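Assess this one:
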Amino acid sequence: MKWYQKLHWKIIIGMILGLAWGIASAQFGFKQFTLNWISPWGEIFINMLKLIAVPLVLTSLIVGVASLSDIKKLSRMGGKTIAVYMFTTAVAVTIGLLAVNILKPGKSIPDELTQKLKASYQSTVEESESSAKAAKERGPLQPIVDMVPENMIEASGNNRNMLQVVIVAILFGIALIQIENKKSDQIVGLLDIANEVVLKVVDMAMLLAPFGVFSLLANTIVSVAGDDIGQITELLEALGFYCFVVIFALLFHAGIVFPTLLKFLTPMKLKTFFKGIAPAQLLAFSTSSSGATLPVTMECCEEELGVSEEVSSFVLPLGATINMDGTALYQAVAAVFIAQTLGMDLGIGAQLTIILTAVLASIGTAAVPGAGIIMLVIILEAVGVPTEGIALILGVDRILDMMRTTINVTGDASVAVIVADSEGQLTIPNNS
């Protein structure tokens, strides 16, 4: 197969052409054409991925749990998965705090720009504050209550309820372990066939990936720039150092923490890992949704990295729901940046609060674009920073959302490889 026929290269080409088209649209004034005739194809592609996500999680996870035939094995795997997820998230937040405290990007923002940004994004700030207030007013055990759906069909009808779908699938899988083999084998066999059908639909959806990525990137550019590409330039000039700090911290986490864990805890070569997960990373970057990317992440882990279906079907859906390394790191940097810009100094106690709140908030952050902003409001309130300060970062949030989603997906895949190896269910490809 020639290099340009490989999926990740097709996606890269689509990204480059999408960026070029978006810039040209803003520069030469055909934004409306792009929004009317180009952007919808990106929405179609995203919808196809979202369409697949719930059936894929349900079928693969039920089959995966049922095939364990041992509840102790399930609890052991679950304990490992959650422990590693929590550890990497805490490390990510710590890296973010170290970067923002050392480099101090908030000190470089002029007062006049601060006031201008606050005025520009006032309505968005108020909307995020309202959503965050509703989330904050929930009782301490409400997240656990929310994990158990009162209606399975309703839970399956919304990708934001993926954790509920995971819980339902685990319960059904455990139930299948406890009934007669003859009866359970029939159901598991049927679900296994359904899972194969869903995976074929994933393959069909990925044929649209280059076109979908092209459309999504073009739409992102014209949405941010409007009819004037200079708006992006001005914004990046003003907030460029802040963006640099976030991206530097994210790349440090992805380039140091994940490789270190893989090197010491698995026999997998880093080249094999990053080459295998590349299509999922590129898709995550384009869609800004780890939930929408989930079908591709699972396919990459199973086919390219050698993670067993049993491990992949359990670890990855759970990761797409509760493992948000990139989001948590970003929230830590953003919170301290806003405080610095407003002339506030956050002490050790406040920053420890940020670590704890960001780790816990990452569990409840929906795997959809922009959800991190709502959780950021909660973090700001926890440390006494005015929530209207999020107006300072909203202009570049979409760009950074793409980066942090890529890190989220990379983290999910890393943990899947680690857990698979610890369970003796990692088969490293021969071509590695």
Remarks:
- The domain at 3-422 is CATH 1.10.3860.10 (Proton glutamate symport protein).
- The chain has a mean pLDDT of 83.
- The first helix runs from residue 7 to 28.
